[in-house]
Design a protein that fits this description.
The protein has helices spanning 3-23, 113-116, 119-124, 142-158, 219-229, 231-255, and strands at 26-31, 35-38, 45-54, 66-86, 89-109, 162-165, 169-172, 176-183, 190-200, 203-216. It is an alpha+beta fold. A six-stranded mixed beta sheet has the order 2-10-9-4-5-6. Strands 1-3-8-7 form a four-stranded antiparallel beta sheet, with no helix packed on it. A hairpin with a 2-residue loop joins strand 4 (66-86) and strand 5 (89-109). Helix 5 (219-229) packs across helix 6 (231-255). It is globular and about 80 Å long.
């Protein structure tokens, strides 16, 4: 192949690739709040994920597109322990360590996930509670891992840290979308990712994300920073405060 012909082939490949990218729709996502402050009166909040779908040439496709939104974070290692009753006493029977368990995970979609993508695609993008990749350390039996992960998902569901709603996303005129995700009072602090997936005919056409900060504020923030930066003084202050409160309570009861 001559040099000129090779250049023509390369240019044709680049042109086709750019044309394909231009033909793909784009997502323009946003969230109602980029930062959530946790104070003593915090009882939870509802985060709105919304945005628009930009189609090439502003032409809507004939096939219906769906939206999936995910809010997750922060990822952390966790040790799960299973308790069993032995001789009338509950003891730790076995345990497993997960390297990347999300402290919070919420997913909403315009239709059930199994109606949008196949199992392989859902596992690749971690769409759905059963498709979370928590990376267990060491060798673990499949049944044991499934039992422990199922127990964790069930526990976090009940306390509101895991959430799944197959009808949370509303799409208006095929272009605008929005979804409300409940954020519970017990949510851990850290950096969260609000992800949006555009899906059509079993394919993920576009992905976009925004960061959300969940942080302590006010007196709670002061206490948390003091415990992190000045652990020794924080411990002494906690002990001194406990002694002072105990002495004050005993003095009140003596007077009565």
């Amino acid at each position: 192949m001559s040099v000129s012909r090779a250049l023509i082939v390369i240019l044709a490949m680049l042109f086709s690739a750019s044309t394909a990218r231009a033909a793909d729709p784009r997502l323009v996502p946003d969230v109602s709040s980029r930062a959530i402050d946790i104070q003593y009166s915090f009882t939870g909040e509802e985060l709105l994920l919304f945005g628009a779908i930009l189609y090439p040439g502003q032409r809507l496709p004939e096939d219906r597109a769906d939206i999936v939104v995910v809010l997750k974070g922060p990822v952390r290692p966790i040790v799960l322990r299973e308790k069993r009753r032995v001789a009338g006493i509950w003891v730790n029977a076995s345990s497993i360590r997960l390297r990347s368990s999300p402290g919070f995970y919420a997913i909403g979609s315009s239709r059930p996930i199994d109606k949008l993508v196949d199992e392989r695609t859902a596992a690749i993008f971690e769409l759905g509670l059963t498709n979370l990749s928590m990376s267990p350390t060491g060798f673990s039996e499949a049944r044991k891992l499934e039992r422990f992960e199922g127990g964790l998902i069930d526990l976090y569901r009940r306390i509101g840290l895991f959430y799944e709603n197959a009808a949370a996303v509303e799409i208006t005129e095929g272009v605008l979308y929005r979804a409300r995700i409940p954020v519970p009072a017990r949510v851990p602090v850290g950096t969260y990712r609000a992800e949006t997936y555009l899906i059509s005919q079993g394919r993920v056409l576009a992905v976009a994300s925004r960061d959300v900060q969940i942080r302590k504020a006010g007196f709670e923030r002061f206490v948390a920073l003091a415990a992190q930066r000045h652990g020794f003084l924080y411990g002494l202050s906690a002990v001194a405060l406990s002694l002072l409160l105990g002495y004050g309570a005993s003095a009140i009861f003596r007077r009565r």
